[in-house]
Specification:
alpha/beta, Rossmann fold, seven-stranded parallel beta sheet, about 15% strand
């Protein structure tokens, strides 16, 4: 018996990375899944691979009619809706506050925040009638701390975290749970896309990402290793299942300990620097 037997899920941003791996795990756990994304060929190939339990619908989450059609497609295909995973995102590009392009900022917010909002708007009435459901919104550790990505990326994920909590308290009385998920760096094609690499190429070749992300996290992450889409997808499966039935309005951080504070090696490096700066000004008694 699977953890999601008989359930129906929609995965926005489901054609690659975390979303694609989540679709695979959901189907293996007994769910029927609607995969939504902008790349038709990739989405249809994934749905075909997963068999009769999966469907694909081309969706731009910044367009409300697309989102409404995405949700309705799940109901028309499978008869209900038990889980919505809002995972669509554009690469985090942008600049500092003095050079920010407001049109690019608004376009990113329309996908990263507006898409989440619209997904919940159209899923909520169905789940409220059912008196059950789980909504999971992808945010990021950048939503609670600045400096690791762009101003736009930090702002969008912070908004998703609070939007999640706001909707959770509204839908809780109907038996609908709403949580956000905040990964740290994950080995996906998103990094390559942010550099202008073709999306399909970026998704299929992540070895350079593994090396770059590994070098970064080794300095800021207490837990060894680098997160993969599978690591995050398994947490999404938990939030979609009855194992998390009493968790709502929560931002679940999956970051290897990055947000806990400085690593021990980083702390010791700062402590050594502090000692070196302090000693000349205050010589020890033995040297006096």
């Amino acid at each position: 018996m699977g953890a999601l037997d008989g359930r129906v899920a929609v995965i926005a941003g489901g054609t690659s990375g975390i979303g694609a791996r989540t679709a695979e795990l959901f189907v293996n756990a007994g769910a029927r899944v609607v995969i939504a994304g902008r790349r038709r060929e990739r989405g249809e190939a994934l749905a075909a691979k997963l068999g009769t339990a999966a469907r694909f619908i081309r969706t731009d989450v910044s367009i409300e009619r697309d989102v409404a059609a995405m949700i309705q497609h799940a109901v028309d295909s499978f008869g209900r809706l038990d889980c919505l995973f809002n995972n669509a995102a554009d690469p985090s590009t942008g600049s500092g506050i003095t050079d920010i392009d407001i049109q690019r900022f608004n376009a990113a917010i329309a996908v990263r925040v507006g898409g989440v909002l619209l997904g919940m708007k159209h899923a909520a009435p169905i789940m409220m009638r059912q008196q059950s459901g789980s909504i999971i919104n992808t945010a990021s550790v950048n939503g609670t701390r600045a400096g690791y990505t762009t101003l736009t990326g930090c702002t969008a994920t912070a908004a998703v975290i609070h939007l999640t909590k706001s909707v959770a308290v509204e839908l809780g009385p109907y038996g609908v749970r709403v949580n956000s998920l905040s990964p740290g760096p994950v080995i996906t094609g998103m990094f390559g896309k942010a550099l202008g690499i073709d999306p399909d190429t970026a998704d299929s070749d992540t070895e350079a990402v593994r090396s770059a992300v590994g070098a970064f996290v080794s300095k800021v992450q207490p837990l060894r290793g680098v997160a993969t889409p599978d690591d995050i997808a398994r947490v999404v499966l938990f939030l979609a299942s009855d194992a998390s039935r009493f968790i709502t309005a929560h931002d679940l951080v999956v970051d290897g300990g990055i947000t806990a504070g400085r690593t021990q090696s980083e702390t010791m490096a700062y402590f050594t620097m502090f000692q070196e700066k302090l000693r000349p000004a205050h010589p020890s008694r033995q040297s006096s």
